[in-house]
Automatic annotation (TrEMBL):
Identification of the protein by name: PEP5/VPS11 N-terminal domain-containing protein
Keyword Membrane applies: yes
Protein keywords: Membrane, Metal-binding, Zinc, Zinc-finger
Domain PEP5/VPS11 N-terminal: 97-349
Pfam families the record matches: PEP5_VPS11_N
GO cellular component term of the entry, any: endosome
Species of origin: Aphanomyces astaci (Crayfish plague agent)
Any one GO molecular function term: zinc ion binding
Chief localisation class: membrane
GO terms classed as biological process: endosome organization; organelle fusion; vacuole organization; vesicle docking involved in exocytosis
Matching SUPFAM superfamilies: WD40 repeat-like
Entry's localization field: Membrane
Amino acid sequence: MSGNRGLLVIGDASGLIHMANRQLETRAFRAHDHFVSHVIMMKKANLLVSIGDGKDPRDPELIKASKAIADASRTQAQQDEVPQPSPSLYMSPLGSTALVKIWRTDQQDRDGKPKLLQQIKIFAKFPEEAVTAFSVSDDLAQIAVGLLNGAIILFRSDAKRRSDKPPLLLQPATQYPVTSLHFATKLNVPTLYAATKRGLTCYHCDDSSKSGGMPRSVVLDERGVALHCGAVSEDGDMAVGQSDAVYFYTPEDRSVCFGFDGDKKYLGFFKQYLLVAHVDPRGRHQVNLYDLQNKFIAFNWTLTNTAKGGGGGGGRFGDDAAEEIRHVVSEFGAVFVQSSLGYVYRLLEVDTTSKLDILFRKHLYSIAISLAFSSNYDLTSIMDIFRAYGDHLYQKGDFDGSLRQYARTI
């Protein structure tokens, strides 16, 4: 699941990719023969990169549930196009077929599908393994593929010469699966953050590595990182969700941390917010949006099977199933949460005035002032907040505090 360039993109368990526009009008096309494991919609160009087929790293029960959701969501025409299930849930009958495909979403072929620009055989030179993580650099010059056995393969291209270089085994196989890969740029140096269930490493993929040499690597942490629990900020820093906190890393060392308890299930960024999905003490999945600049929880939501289907059931695929978070992506100024019951929830941000009204009702004037400044509110309105804060403190009997707030309006 990915979102960029005015498109929300979802790959399903039968090889189809679904694309939705801002009005949530969808169209689908066959991208891979058997299943789609990863999709990335690029930020700076109308390009979609997908990985599909080969070995499937998911649990057989999850594969079965995903296929049920995909079947229920397809039209009859799309249903007729779906091939018969493979004899093996983990490998297509044709052998090693795992492919990276690059599509042009603003151009179409004769069949009306996005134009296929390139496809890469992932395991042409390496032993076949399931793909667990995937990242693409903004200039499309480097593609990193992480595997279930802990290996990382780096595919590189030379845009000036219009040629591809031999793939590089960036990290050899271990017993710890790769859980997160993210390209970033910090101080004009391209880097790749690579997380496994054993630790976090940063590879400096500068010009020396592009010319064929092995990138310089820095081990940032020896704590394992869970799947979907790593994300890169706009500043090029890596955020990692652990059970006790969210830790930030630069390409060279650990940076700050924020103490958010709970078993993390997903980590991401939405505008100025840190998005954290975790499990609460009662075992329910929650989504929290933290405003790190103003230091408050901007949003909290618990999945409780509220989107019930007809007949009073707990969801489309079983009354007793506990609803869990599968994927989270932001696009169209909103956050989309895909759940294990086949639902996609859209979370919309309210405007600054509505946020301030909520803070005023809770008498959180300090946070309201900080929010107004960070939102570039006009000075007259900010002075009104100081004055209201002073009135509140005066009514509480804090005359010195109220005087300080009144003084800031002069």
